[in-house]
Amino acid sequence: MDTRTAMSPTERDTPAPVGASETTTLETGPARAWATRLVVAGIVLSAVNLRPAITSLGALLEEVRDGLGMSGSVAGLLTSVPPLCFAVFGVMAPRLARRFGPAAVVCAGMAAIFAGLLVRPYAGGTAGFLAASALALMGIAVSNVLMPVIVKRWFPDRVGSMTGLYSMVLALGTSLPAAVTVPMTHALGGNWKLGLAVWAVLAAAAVVPWIPLVREGRERPAPAARSAKASAKAQTPASASARAAEEQPPLRITRSRTAWALAVFFGLQATAAYITMGWMPQIFRDAGVSAGTAGLLLAVTMVMGVPLAFVIPRIATRLPHQGPIVLVLGVCGLAGYAGLYLAPAAGAWAWALLLGIANCAFPLALTMVGMRARSGPGVAQLSAFAQSTGYLISIPGPLLVGVLYQHSGGWGLPIALMAGLMVPQMVVGVLAGRDRTVEEEAAAR
C-alpha cells in the first residue's frame, strides 16, 4: 500500500501502470474485468461475514447463558474468545497465504465460518459451543488479516476507497445481526438456537465468489511463464523497484516502534469493540431497556460505522498525520462512557451514537496498516503482527468486565475500566499515525 513519503495524493489516485507492482497482472480485457468483479464480490461478501458470529451472540447472550447454564464469569470468557482466536490464528495467515494464495485461505475461512455457525448452537453444552465458535472465529481471523493484502494486490491505486468499502460493509455486517437477531428469533418461535444458526446461510454465500479465483489461480499475480517479449514490455523502473521490494527478506517487524504503537492501538480499540459488542445490550437491559430495544441500540452503535468507515480511510490517506482523527474518536468514546455511567437509559440513543463513532477506530487502524508499510509482504507482516498482537492484548478486557460485573453487582466499575482504557488508546494512536514506514524503522535499528 502506498505511503505518504512514496507518492503524492494525486499520484495515489492515478491508476498504476501495467507491471508497476505484483498486484497488476498482464491480463487485460474481459477476463481481467471478470476476475476483478469476482474479487470485489468476494471482498464484500467476506466483509459482511466477519462479525455476525459475535454480534448475533451479543444480542442473545442472556438467552444463551440461561440455555447453557453459564455464570457471568464464563460469559465473560465467551466474549473473550473472539480476540483470543484472532490472536492465535491470525498470525498464521501470512504463511498460509504464501503457500496456498490469499484467495484460497479466505475461501477456506468462509467455509469455516459457515461450519462453525451452523454447528455451535447444537454442539451440546458450553464446551461444544466454545469449540464451534472457535472454528468460526478461526475463519474470521485469517480473513481479517488477509483483506488488506487482497486490497493491496488487486487495487493498489484505490487503497483508501477499497478499504473504505470493505470497512463499510463490515460495519453493516456488524450492525445487521445486532438489530434483527432478537426479532428474527421471536419469529422462529423463540428458539435461540435457530436464531444463531440462521447466520450460517450468509457465510455459505461468501464461499462462492472465491471458488473460481482459487481454481484458476487468479488470486496470485500473473503466471511467471510469460514470453520474454511480454515481460520486457511490462518491465518499467517502477515495476523493477516494486519487484525488488517484494523480494526483500522478511522484516524484523518487532524493531519498529510504529509497528508496536499500531499493535497496541489495534488491541485497545479491539478491547473497546468486543466489550461493546458483548456487553452493551446487557448494560441497557439492566438499566430497564427492553431486549429488542437493547439490540437496536447495539445496531445503532454498529451502523455508525457504515458511512464513517467509508469516509475515514479516504480522509486518513490524505493527511500527513492521522493523530487528529484518533483524538476525535477518543473524545467521542469518553463522552459515550460518561453517559452510560450517569444516565444509561435516559440518553441511551445518544450514548449509542457516540460509541458508534468511537468504534470507527477499527477502519482507521486498517488504513494505517496500509500506510505504514511499502510493499505487499510488508503489509502482510504488519497486518499479521498488529492484528495478532492487538487481539492478544484485547483478550483480558471482556473477561475482566464480566468478573467486575458479577462481583460488584453493577456496571460502575466496568464502565470506568472502559473509559480508562480510552486514554492510552488515544496516546498510542497518535504515535501510530506519524508519517513513517516500518521498513524505514526496521532498517535503521
TrEMBL record:
GO terms for cellular component: plasma membrane. Pfam families: MFS_1. Its main location: membrane. It is a multi-pass membrane protein. InterPro entries: CynX-like (IPR004747), MFS (IPR011701), MFS_Cyanate_Porter (IPR052524), MFS_dom (IPR020846), MFS_trans_sf (IPR036259). It comes from the Bacteria. The chain crosses the membrane at residues 34-54, 74-93, 100-123, 129-151, 163-182, 194-213, 259-279, 291-312, 324-343, 349-370, 382-405, 411-432. It is found in: Cell membrane. One of its GO terms (molecular function) is transmembrane transporter activity. Residues 35-437 form the Major facilitator superfamily (MFS) profile domain. Keywords: Membrane, Transmembrane, Transmembrane helix. Residues 1-24, 222-250 are annotated as: Disordered. Residues 222-243 have a biased composition (Low complexity). PANTHER family: 2-NITROIMIDAZOLE TRANSPORTER, PTHR23523. This is Integral membrane transporter.
